[in-house]
């Protein structure tokens, strides 16, 4: 105690230790960070300290009168940043990035979901701030701030600098090229701490902003060579089978593939879809590839066959870019392109992005009659959504591409008692328990819609495509998922759980389950081939799912990937067939190739490179 009072550095060190301990506890209780060995645990422990020493140390340069205020403010602001990440993590299983913070268009609608993730007991996350405030203000005599000499400040910062390098050095050994392979935010946070991570994110933000200004057409040369080399011949039997037909596409909110053909409490979760896949092409080895932009990322993949971004939602950050979208190509081929979604038109910045993508019409919240009676949670219930959309669908010019985005099966999966066709599951997670009931409701909604399409004579004239937009049950619920599957969920299982159903119904066709490996990146070339459109000059990363030669891996936005043989996740290779960990001698080369592909796609978006490309001639514009 005496020493604490005597040392000049005490206030700085005390403030640092308080926040340091809090941050480490937070790692353990609020974030689900995988630790593989003792060294990683040690890095995790020391990772927050360098930042805290640097910022609290700045108080040495401040007039003694204001030092208490400064120390308190830094502690409060830092704690708020940490708390924002805690709440964000509960909902998204991810850390905040700068672009995500500016997605204010979404805030209103996100309220219910985010609020449901805040608890009164969260006040404990501010215990250290309160302790610091009490000491600084209630016991002003506890420390007498003293002035520091030049030498003292130097010694302090040299020591701090050596801690920074020590931390970075250890991180570099554990994770080479940590800062250049920043697709994996968990990796970053656990190696450099949540505060340095925030600073690094600010740096990335300014770097990507500069990238567009410096871009030229030459940047496209290498990328074009790459995408062209990946292209595959379409399936000859199916090429053009849907020529001139309407495309009705249904985005199934948060629907993972594991619900298909499974039961809960002895009842089918998706009775309608289970029947519907018997008369459709059903892809049971198909993955979502979304990042922080969730539904909007799935839409981006669909329209562009480019990867969404590693940070933020591309619908927000790059809505002004030039794109060669599916919508535009379809329009050139006489299609009318519309999107139906009963949510605020600015959510995910859709109203802006749809313009860049070339949609003819967006039926959004203002086009629907939403009442207390027909809505729940995020808005209009799916059954009513489809019912009201029908009146519009009947009016639009044919052939059309109509995208319907469902909503009821959205976190936190709330449903009126009377809409529950099955009872909730019993596990340790209410989220998972309720999830089954809202998936079941969604299934019913799709059924009513298909029935209406038949009644209206639209069914036989349309290709119907359905897919899950992204996961609904995050890793946070692994324990409960384990109770459902009656097994422990491994990192390999987590990858498997990212499968979403893809169903393609073509009039007059027999049912077939196709286990070709694929992801949302493949949707655009697949749809175009079914319609008999082959745009050789298009730039895309996907391949036709029906092509007999399809061989591209499924790449997740965070660098995880799946091929027919190997699955890579959390730094380990697994055998895709057995799920057993395996040794891959040239593993690093695989990882490099995957990162190259993600980088190429990112370069197109950050540099807005398609503005230098004439898609009709396939030439680069100087
Ligand atoms: C919002 C809806 C849901 O309009 O698409 O968005 P999500 O949270 O799933 O990305
Ligand atoms: Mn969604």
From TrEMBL:
CDD domains: LTA_synthase. It is found in: Cell membrane. The chain crosses the membrane at residues 12-30, 42-63, 70-92, 112-135, 155-173. The keyword Manganese applies. Residues 245-533 form the Sulfatase N-terminal domain. The active site is at 295. Mn(2+) binds at residues 253, 295, 469-470. One of its GO terms (cellular component) is plasma membrane. Keywords: Cell membrane, Manganese, Membrane, Metal-binding, Transmembrane, Transmembrane helix. One of its GO terms (molecular function) is metal ion binding. It is a multi-pass membrane protein. Its main location: membrane. InterPro entries: Alkaline_phosphatase_core_sf, LtaS-like, OpgB/LTA_synthase_biosynth, Sulfatase_N. Substrate binds at residue 410. PANTHER family: LIPOTEICHOIC ACID SYNTHASE, LIPOTEICHOIC ACID SYNTHASE-LIKE YQGS. Belongs to the LTA synthase family. This is LTA synthase family protein. It comes from Fervidibacillus halotolerans.
């Amino acid at each position: 105690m005496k020493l604490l009072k005597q040392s000049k550095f005490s206030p700085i060190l005390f403030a640092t230790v308080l926040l340091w301990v809090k941050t480490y506890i937070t790692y353990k209780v609020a974030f689900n960070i995988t630790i593989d060995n003792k060294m990683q645990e040690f890095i995790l422990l020391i990772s927050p300290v360098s930042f805290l020493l640097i910022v609290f140390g700045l108080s040495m340069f401040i007039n003694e009168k204001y030092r208490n205020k400064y120390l308190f403010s830094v502690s409060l602001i830092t704690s708020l940043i940490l708390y924002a990440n805690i709440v964000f993590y509960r909902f998204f299983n991810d850390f905040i990035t700068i672009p995500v913070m500016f997605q204010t268009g979404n805030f209103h609608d996100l309220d219910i979901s985010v609020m449901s993730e805040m608890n009164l007991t969260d006040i404990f996350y501010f215990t250290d701030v309160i302790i610091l405030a009490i000491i600084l203000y209630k016991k002003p005599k506890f420390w007498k701030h003293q002035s520091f000499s030049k030498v003292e400040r130097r010694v302090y910062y040299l020591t701090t600098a050596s801690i920074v390098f020590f931390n970075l050095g250890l991180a570099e050994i554990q994770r080479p090229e940590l800062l250049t392979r920043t697709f994996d935010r968990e990796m970053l946070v656990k190696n450099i701490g949540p505060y340095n991570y925030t600073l690094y994110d600010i740096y990335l933000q300014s770097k990507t902003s500069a990238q567009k200004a410096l871009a030229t057409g030459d940047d496209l040369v290498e990328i074009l060579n790459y995408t062209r080399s990946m292209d595959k011949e379409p399936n000859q039997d199916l090429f053009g089978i849907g020529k001139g037909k309407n495309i009705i596409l249904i985005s199934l909110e948060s629907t993972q593939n594991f619900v298909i053909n499974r039961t809960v409490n002895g009842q089918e979760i998706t009775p309608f879809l289970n029947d519907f896949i018997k008369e459709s092409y059903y892809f049971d080895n198909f993955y979502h590839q979304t990042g922080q932009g969730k539904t909007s990322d799935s839409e981006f993949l669909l329209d562009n066959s480019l990867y969404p971004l590693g940070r933020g939602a591309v619908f927000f950050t790059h809505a002004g870019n030039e794109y060669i979208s599916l919508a535009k190509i379809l329009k050139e081929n006489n299609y009318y392109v519309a999107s139906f979604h009963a949510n605020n038109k600015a959510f995910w910045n859709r109203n802006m992005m749809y313009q860049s993508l070339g949609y003819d019409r967006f039926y959004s919240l203002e086009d629907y009659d939403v009442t207390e009676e027909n809505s729940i949670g995020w808005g209009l219930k799916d059954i009513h959504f489809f019912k009201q959309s029908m009146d519009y669908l009947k009016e639009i010019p044919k052939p059309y591409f109509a995208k319907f985005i469902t909503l009821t099966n959205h976190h936190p999966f709330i449903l009126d008692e009377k809409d529950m066709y099955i009872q909730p599951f019993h596990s340790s997670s209410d989220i998972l328990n309720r999830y089954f009931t809202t998936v079941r409701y969604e299934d019913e909604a799709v059924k009513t819609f298909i029935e209406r399409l038949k009644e209206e004579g639209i069914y036989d004239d349309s290709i119907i495509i359905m897919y899950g937009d992204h996961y609904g049950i995050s890793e946070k619920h692994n324990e409960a998922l384990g109770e459902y599957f009656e097994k422990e969920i491994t990192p390999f299982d987590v990858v498997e759980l990212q499968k979403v159903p893809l169903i393609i119904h073509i009039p007059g066709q027999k049912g077939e389950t196709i286990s070709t490996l694929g992801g949302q990146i493949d949707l655009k070339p697949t749809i175009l081939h079914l319609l008999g459109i082959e745009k050789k000059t298009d730039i895309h990363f996907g391949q036709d799912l029906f092509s007999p030669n399809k061989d591209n891996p499924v790449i997740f936005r965070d660098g995880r990937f799946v091929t027919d043989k190997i699955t890579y996740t959390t730094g380990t290779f697994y055998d895709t067939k057995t799920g057993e960990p395996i040794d891959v001698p040239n593993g690093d080369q695989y990882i490099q190739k995957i990162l190259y592909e993600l980088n190429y796609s990112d370069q197109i978006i950050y540099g807005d490179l398609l503005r230098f490309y004439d898609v009709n001639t396939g030439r680069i514009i100087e």
